Design the sequence.
């Protein structure tokens, strides 16, 4: 027997609910109680779903309340208070507690005299007082009670989740309450699907397919590629379910919108909804397995497109038609000509897009390689746009930063063969001396001389040009971010040796991959390097640029 799942109006909740000993007592405070009251009031008669209540049928016909004690107890207190204004208001359910038998009676009539008897009475009384004060603060408490009761009996529902008899209650309670994660849309949809007649005979098959889809979507690279998010959600199949139940409102998707939207579709027939879920999963895996599609879709999603929109774009189109539309969408995202690219600078939004696309396209066009651009690493924001060669120490304003900067450059001096040995030794000695009792004055005096040792003529011209920018995984190390090329080159190589993910074009730049042989010099980032890097960038993204504008 599978679980039963359905919405139940609060006014229709009936029966005896048994709260077992594995649960703690009632603990809702001011925030939770007032939020429930205000949420119901603001629903204003529109259909509104509260969090699920999870129950199991007991042998004596009562309900074991596995999850939802706090909500049902608070609703009970609200209904009790409404009955003071509306004596005819029905209260069809009751709660009893395995380890706190007296709480059932106290719940019906909380008194100040018994408030301090135990911790449960204290919280029940305080919540009851919050309910009383809330109604009394309304302009017309009696009218508010009438309206509120109307909402509870006509439009406000809980999601009723009846667990199958074979389900272990304690294990279910633990699973629901680890980290206080409630039932998700995905879990509710799954439970409802498995109750439907045409799928119930395939319960094991559908459950196995569900688990396989969830496992596929939990692969970090798959999830980041299709969502631009690291894999942190409790369920991932909900992406497919949300796609079948789109939400276009200005606010966040309402609680259980997906479940409520799909519920009538699942009623007749459920297999149609399940087939659409399977097809969406196949679509994602097909996109992921195709290197061209993977990189183009991954780029678009990283830039802000959503899976749902790309699904619509692909509907009814052949593979080559869809590929052409992806190219056009990337072109529309950039809105750049070739000359626009050459003029991009540090801090401009299009600069980040172009550098990301250069890296994505460089990997995509490696026809004899299985390497893929890591959208997972991009989603985790392990790098930012940085200068390949930098001399902007004005941003360093703490002794710790000055010290780090000098140490980084002192260590790089040891491998710098372009300056005289005696000059290098003298500069190293003076750096060490300054580090013993570093002041801003000492740092500002040494910095120009140290930087000059690592620079060639023209190195510092227009350092904010895109020809001097790359995706670098330097994090929050401001001393390294503001260092010269040689210091950064050593850092990139060290990270590469440790197995850190270095974007391919960043690695290529620091290995002088883009510089012609006659212009090679390992320690500096000069004019030849910038020209080669910019030429490669333009070549990689040329297919996504617009024609030059007429002059």
Sequence:
């Amino acid at each position: 027997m599978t679980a039963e799942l359905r919405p139940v109006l609060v006014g229709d909740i009936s029966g005896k609910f048994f709260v077992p000993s594995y649960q703690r007592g009632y603990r809702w405070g001011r925030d939770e109680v007032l939020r429930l009251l205000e949420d119901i009031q603001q629903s204003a008669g529109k259909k509104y779903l509260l969090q699920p209540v999870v129950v199991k049928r007991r042998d004596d016909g009562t309900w074991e309340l596995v999850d939802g004690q706090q909500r049902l107890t608070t609703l009970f207190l609200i209904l009790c208070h409404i009955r003071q204004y509306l004596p005819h208001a029905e209260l069809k359910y009751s709660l009893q507690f395995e380890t706190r038998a007296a709480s059932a009676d106290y719940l019906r009539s909380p008194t100040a005299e018994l408030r301090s008897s135990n911790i449960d009475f204290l919280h029940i009384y305080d919540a009851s007082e919050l309910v009383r004060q809330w109604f009394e603060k309304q302009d017309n408490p009696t009218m508010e009670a009438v309206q509120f009761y109307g909402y509870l009996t006509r439009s406000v529902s809980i999601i009723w989740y009846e667990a199958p008899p074979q389900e272990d209650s304690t294990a279910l309670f633990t699973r629901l309450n680890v980290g206080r994660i409630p039932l998700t849309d995905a879990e509710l949809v799954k439970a409802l699907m498995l109750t439907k007649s045409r799928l119930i005979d395939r319960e094991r098959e559908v459950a196995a397919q569900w688990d396989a889809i969830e496992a596929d979507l939990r692969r970090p690279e798959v999830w980041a590629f299709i969502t631009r998010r690291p894999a942190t959600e409790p369920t991932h199949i909900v992406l497919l379910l949300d796609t079948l139940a789109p939400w276009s409102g200005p606010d966040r998707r309402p609680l259980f919108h997906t479940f409520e939207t799909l519920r009538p579709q699942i009623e007749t027939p459920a297999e149609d909804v399940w087939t659409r879920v399977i097809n969406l999963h196949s679509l994602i895996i097909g996109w992921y397995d195709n290197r061209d599609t993977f990189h183009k879709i991954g780029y678009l999603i990283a830039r802000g497109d959503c899976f749902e929109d790309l699904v619509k774009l692909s509907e009814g189109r052949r593979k080559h038609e869809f590929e052409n539309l992806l190219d056009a969408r990337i072109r529309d995202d950039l809105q750049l000509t070739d000359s626009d690219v050459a003029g991009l600078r540090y801090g401009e939004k299009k600069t980040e897009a172009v550098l990301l696309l250069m890296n994505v396209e460089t990997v995509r066009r490696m026809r004899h390689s299985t390497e893929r651009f890591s959208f997972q690493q991009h989603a985790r924001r392990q790098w930012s746009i940085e200068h390949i060669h930098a001399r902007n120490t004005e941003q360093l304003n703490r002794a710790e930063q000055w010290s780090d900067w000098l140490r980084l450059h002192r260590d790089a001096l040891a491998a710098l063969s372009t300056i005289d040995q005696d000059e290098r030794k003298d500069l190293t000695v003076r750096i060490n001396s300054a580090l013993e009792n570093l002041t801003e004055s000492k740092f500002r005096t040494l910095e120009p001389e140290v930087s000059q040792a690592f620079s060639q003529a023209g190195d510092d011209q227009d350092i904010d040009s895109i020809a001097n920018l790359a995706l670098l995984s330097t994090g929050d190390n401001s001393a390294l971010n503001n260092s010269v090329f040689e210091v950064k080159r050593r850092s990139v190589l060290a990270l590469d040796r440790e197995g850190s993910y270095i974007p391919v074009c960043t690695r290529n730049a620091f290995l002088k991959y883009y510089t012609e042989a006659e212009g090679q010099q390992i320690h500096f980032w000069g004019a030849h390097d910038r020209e080669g890097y910019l030429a490669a960038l333009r070549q990689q993204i040329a297919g996504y640029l617009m024609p030059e504008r007429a002059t």
The mean pLDDT is 88. The two ends are 74 Å apart (CA to CA).
